[in-house]
Structure to design on (193 residues):
């Protein structure tokens, strides 16, 4: 029997937040579901999920979008991890990252939360920070704009032109992480374009 991976795109629920920088993690799991022609359904764990496979005969993947707000993402992630019996090392969290320039991906396992409240809450809820992360760069706000306002604002016009490629690259990175491991995904996706 194949092992299961839990792949969570962090974000905020509802149409108001769909196109914001903070929801880029959910955009990536939408891309992964779309590649498999799958639709999300409600799960009792407090999230919308798709149960699918990387490819036929490979490990099962559960794509998830928590129904909670970003800062309290941990409870649904922990509930899904328990329900599907997925350990932290197979729980991939995809999230926006202020400290990485827009259109850059970085992958890692463990480490600090870097001020990201969603990542902080996931680590608290599952009892460890040692889980893989696909960090999607959104860059810092211009001038003196408050970072909280920045992450909750939609991508700008120029960013929207590049965003589909960034989301697709992030989905590729998740697939490679699951198929071949973190190092293979880092070697491919940390290199400059």
């Amino acid at each position: 029997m194949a092992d299961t991976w839990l792949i969570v795109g962090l974000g905020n629920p509802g149409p108001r937040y769909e196109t914001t920088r903070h929801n880029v993690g959910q955009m990536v799991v939408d891309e992964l579901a779309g590649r498999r022609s799958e639709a999300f359904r409600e799960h009792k764990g407090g999230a919308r999920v798709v149960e699918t496979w990387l490819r036929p005969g490979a490990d099962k993947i559960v794509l998830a979008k928590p129904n909670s707000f970003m800062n309290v993402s941990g409870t649904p992630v922990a509930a899904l991890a328990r329900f599907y019996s997925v350990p932290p090392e197979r729980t991939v969290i995809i999230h926006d990252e202020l400290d990485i320039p827009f259109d850059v991906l970085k992958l890692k396992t463990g480490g600090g939360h870097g001020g990201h409240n969603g990542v902080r809450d996931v680590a608290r809820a599952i009892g460890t920070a040692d889980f893989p992360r696909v960090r999607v760069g959104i860059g810092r706000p211009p001038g003196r704009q408050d970072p909280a306002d920045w992450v909750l604002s939609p991508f700008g016009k120029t960013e929207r032109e590049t965003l589909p490629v960034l989301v697709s690259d992030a989905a590729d990175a998740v697939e490679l992480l699951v198929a071949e491991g973190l190092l293979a995904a880092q070697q491919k996706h940390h290199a400059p374009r």
About this structure: DSSP finds six helices and seven strands in the chain. The first strand starts at residue 4 and ends at 9.
